[in-house]
Amino acid sequence: QVQLVESGGGLVQAGGSLRLSCAASGNIPSINAMGWYRQAPGKQRELVAFMPSGGRANYRDSVKGRFTISRDNAKNTVYLQMNSLKPDDTAVYYCAYKSWRVVLDTPDYWGQGTQVTVSS
């Protein structure tokens, strides 16, 4: 069992920045993938960025160059630095985790979600 606790999020004007954090605890193997999904009202949940333990970051095209994902494996924590935010980035952001895999297509665990609202 793995627990994910998110922090960060909030309201920001377009062009601004926010940082999300997600700390994992529980039975965490050395090989895993952590990252972030988001879901806007009326839309499907979509993968924003993920990073496997010891691997490279992966991003959806619409956030490349603006968002940066990073990990502190010693703390089992993943971060999402979001810069140059746009109103289209408005969504509930969910931390996601998968054990024994280097991709995050079907997460095993989800965080509680944190609202990110970007005003124009």
Give a short overview:
This protein is mainly beta and 120 residues long. It has strands spanning 2-7, 10-13, 18-26, 32-39, 46-52, 58-59, 67-72, 77-82, 91-99, 109-110, 114-119. 31% of the residues are buried.
Secondary-structure-based class equals mainly beta
Uncertain segments are none
Note the overall shape. Answer: globular
The H/E string reads EEEEEEEEEEE
Number of strands: 11
Cα gyration radius (Å): 13 Å
Helical proportion, percent range: under 10%
The major pleated sheet works out as: 7 strands, mixed
Content of β-strand = over 45%
What is the number of helical segments per DSSP (H or I, 4+ residues)?
A: 0
Distance N terminus to C terminus? Answer: 40 Å
> Whole-number average pLDDT?
96
How would you describe this structure to a colleague?
It is a single chain. This protein has no helices and eleven strands. It is mainly β and 120 residues long. Strands 2, 4, 5, 6, 9, 10 and 11 form a seven-stranded mixed beta sheet that branches.
List its traits:
120 residues; mainly beta; 7-stranded mixed beta sheet
